[in-house]
Design a protein that fits this description.
Elements (H helix, E strand, L loop, with lengths): L1 H21 L4 H46 L5 H11 L7 E5 L4 E6 L14 H9 L3 E4 L16 E9 L2 E10 L7 H40 L3 H14 L4 H18 L7 E2 H19 L4 E7 L7 E2 L4 H12 L6 E10 L2 E8 L6 H5 L27 H14 L4 E7 L3 E9 L11
Helix pairs in contact: 1-2, 2-3, 2-5, 5-11, 6-7, 6-8, 7-8, 8-9
């Protein structure tokens, strides 16, 4: 169509010039000019203006959605909902907007909002019906004398749209207008659209919260799985040293006590890399007492400048445990190097061994937990303990890294059969403490 317009305009201009030269009568020229102007306006209206309007509307919608997400990403809190109301109200013709959780007001903004503070019980029957049905409703209070009229005495009509999370109506978005005639299809569409936008963002928040809870539950389950084989062997080792090397037995007993105290302690908050290294050293001391310092050699190469960095708890000891359980050969000694260094935007912790290594097939499924429903002969390791799957510890560590640091951080594993394995934990960005906020 643009090509057609480009062809028509020169033709009309040529016709206009020819009329002015060959015909002294100005009427045809005036008609030609009028036709040219109308044609230009027609093409502009049909092909240019709608694109500009659509682009402008799209940009504005995305901007509003981005602003709302900034406030609703932490849940349906009064402060978040108040900021959301302040963003939405200017986009409508309503005089007042409020958000409820079905029982009480969460936030209110606009005319008469001072009469309806946070915590005000829901009294509008339309709100109760929408909570029960999950369907938007338009209401009018003209000619009625209701208890809720004192909140917004000048506003006689409104729209109540449901806010739903996981197919359950958890609240309402309500717009109030002076007259019923102020409500049209555009206003109902805006109310429904904004309610759906809040619903989807609250659903995203709910999924993140469930991920955090899952990570915490799995960590607690992992901590509660005290390996009796490890426990009895460690106690037996300490008992055997009581008479021959009492000071060493005493030192191991202190390490053993501190190790389990730390392992079974609250692990929902960030700790420091220094504490993680100390916990790893305790575990290595116990393992060296069992296997011997000649067979299990460990070297620390930790940058002291990063020891104060905050890291998720219980991330180093599982890596050391994997080295000893899966990398140690039958007779030859195993060497482990624990190192750390600063990254441009974080810190990296590496555990490297010269053990038996892994093939590509094992690496491809390394982070997949393997669960065994029953402890039969095929589910027991050579030392008699129950198999828990090579990916259980790593998948749990990775999940907690994502909870505290996000998807930009993770675990990188490199391994060669017969050469060894290197596991690098990369923690990038600023960590955050998970905040449990009810939706």
């Amino acid at each position: 169509m643009t090509v057609l317009l480009a062809l028509c305009v020169p033709m009309l201009l040529a016709l206009l010039v020819w009329d002015l030269v060959a015909n002294p009568n100005p009427v045809p020229a005036v008609i030609t000019i009028a036709g040219l102007v109308l044609l230009c306006f027609f093409f502009s209206y049909v092909f240019v203006v709608p694109d500009d309007l659509t682009s402008s509307a799209t940009d504005r919608t995305l901007s509003i959605a981005s602003k709302i997400f900034t406030h609703t990403r932490h849940g349906m809190t009064p402060d978040a909902m108040l900021s959301t109301c302040q963003i939405i109200l200017p986009e409508t013709l309503a005089s007042t907007i409020l958000v409820t959780d079905g029982r009480q007001v969460i936030a209110c903004w606009g005319e008469g909002s001072d009469r309806c503070p946070v915590g005000t019980p829901v009294s509008l029957e339309t709100t109760k019906r929408v909570i029960e049905s999950g369907v938007m409703s338009v209401f009018s209070r003209d000619g009625e004398v209701a208890d809720d009229m004192h909140y917004f005495p000048r506003l006689h009509a409104g729209i109540v749209a449901p806010i739903a999370v996981r197919d359950s109506c958890t609240g309402t978005l309500e717009l109030y207008y002076p007259r019923y005639g102020n409500i049209d299809m555009r206003q109902t569409a805006l109310a429904t659209g904004f309610a759906d936008l809040i619903s989807s963002q609250l659903a995203s928040f709910e999924l993140e919260r469930l991920d955090e809870l899952t990570a915490r539950v799995e960590l607690r389950a992992l901590q509660s799985q005290v390996d009796p084989h490890f426990l009895f062997n460690t106690i037996g080792t300490i008992v055997s040293l009581v008479r021959t090397e009492p000071e060493k037995a005493r030192s191991l007993l202190i390490d053993f006590s501190n190790y389990y105290r730390q392992t079974l302690s609250d692990s929902e908050s960030l700790t420091t890399l220094e504490h993680e290294v100390e916990q790893g050293v305790r575990y290595i001391n116990l393992m060296q007492a069992r296997y011997g310092a000649d067979r299990l050699r460990v070297r620390l190469n930790v940058d002291e400048s990063v020891l104060g960095r905050r890291v998720p708890p219980f991330i180093l000891q599982p890596l050391l445990e994997n080295c000893i359980k899966h990398a140690m050969r039958e007779v030859e000694p195993l060497s482990i190097v624990v190192s750390s260094h600063a990254l441009a935007d974080g810190v990296a912790v590496t555990v490297e061994d010269d053990g038996i290594g892994m093939g590509d097939e094992v690496l491809a499924h390394l982070f997949e937990p393997r669960e065994f429903p029953a402890a039969g002969p095929e589910t027991l390791t050579a030392d008699g303990s129950v198999k828990r799957g090579c990916g259980l510890a790593l998948s749990n560590v990775l999940m907690r890294i994502h909870v505290f640091f996000g998807e930009g951080s993770g675990i990188r594993v490199e391994s060669v059969v017969g050469v060894g394995t290197r596991v690098t934990v990369e923690l990038r960005g600023t960590p955050h403490e998970p905040v449990a906020v009810a939706c």
